[in-house]
Amino acid sequence: MRLPILIFDIETLTDLKSGAHLYHLDLPEADLEQALMKLRRQESGADFQRLPLHEIVCISGLWIDENGAMTLFSFSREQYSEAEILKKFLSIFDKRHPTLVSWNGSQFDLPVILFRAMYHGLSAPSLFDQGEIDQQKRYNNYQNRYHQRHVDLMDAMAMFNGRHFQKLDDVAHLLGFPGKRGDGAYHVPEYVRAQQWLKLTSYCEGDVLNTWLIYLRWLLLKGQLLAEDHRYWVQATIQYLQHQPQHADFLQVWRETSQHTEFTATDFISPTP
């Protein structure tokens, strides 16, 4: 396992101002979202908005440093503008070059970050350089789906075949992890409107934690992690979360769901001294 590692996830809202500009809409703000949704249905048959119109309201990450220490963090609109969130996240890559891990990051998170960074006039060569500046990145960069600098688990586990894509929630439940615990991304606008920032960051961090646990199982499958090392990391994650009060529910649900597979049934049983 190549350290440091950064597992990340983003949460977004529709950027109503940009949408109004793009479609030449002169409507009250209260009517804009419905109008943009209707236009999107006409374009694609679905409500999911075009990537450049996803305004970032939270980026969460789990950082595992070279010594194996874990740090769970979130940059949200509680304290920062979208531009400030992006600056803080992108600065990580200026200082360090972690293995980046995501679920659907190649198709959603990174393209959204790219468009929104350009919207705000930001520069992020450490993340988006493909060899024009650092020639080594011709052979291993964060954009190429077959490189290892960024591991999009959804893509990799589907063997890079879109017909086999799976939902994070489903795979997490299948493997004995908590999943989204009854929540969904449709709650994000509600959290932001009500300024329920802890709910927003806990939700985003929950996706990060599920992705991390699936990544450990992926490394075990590929032989990049021995069984005893896999168990070590799972136990280290449990111990870390025991000191994170906002994730007491995640830990409790994980304890319950772990009993549904034989492989995870002993995750919460203390080893015999």
Automatic annotation (TrEMBL):
Record protein name field: Predicted 3'-5' exonuclease PolB-like domain-containing protein
UniProt cross-references to SUPFAM superfamilies, sorted A to Z: Ribonuclease H-like
GO molecular function list: nucleic acid binding
Residue ranges annotated for the Predicted 3'-5' exonuclease PolB-like domain, each copy included: 47-254
